[in-house]
Amino acid sequence: MDTESILKFKKVLEYFVAHLNYMQSGKSQDIPGYAQYIKPYEDKGNFAQAGQGYNGGKIQNQIKDWEMIDGEKLCVNVQPSYASYKTKKCYLNWIDTGINIFAQWGDNQINGVSIGFSYWWKKPKIDFKVVKTKSLDKLGLYDNSDQPNSELIKFYDYFMNEIKEFHRGTSEYYKAVSKHYRDTENKTKLLENNDIINTILANRNVIFTGAPGTGKTYWTKELAAQIILNDIYDERDPAQKSIMDEQYDFVQFHPSYDYTDFVEGLRPVDDGNGNISFRREDGIFMAFCRKALKAYNEVEDKQDAPKYVFVIDEINRGELSKIFGELFFSIDPGYRGVKGKVKTQYHNLWKNSVDETQKRFGDTDFFYIPENVYIIGTMNDIDRSVECMDFAMRRRFAFKEVLASDRLNMIRNDKTLGKVSDEIIKRLENLNLCILSIQGLSSAYQIGPAYFLKLKNYLKDDNSIAPESWESLWKNHIHGLLFEYLRGFPDAQESLNQLYEAFQLKSTYSQVNGKVIKS
Question: Which domains, ranges and CATH numbers included, belong to the chain?
Answer without folding.
Answer: 3-176 (no CATH), 193-402 (3.40.50.300), 409-518 (no CATH)
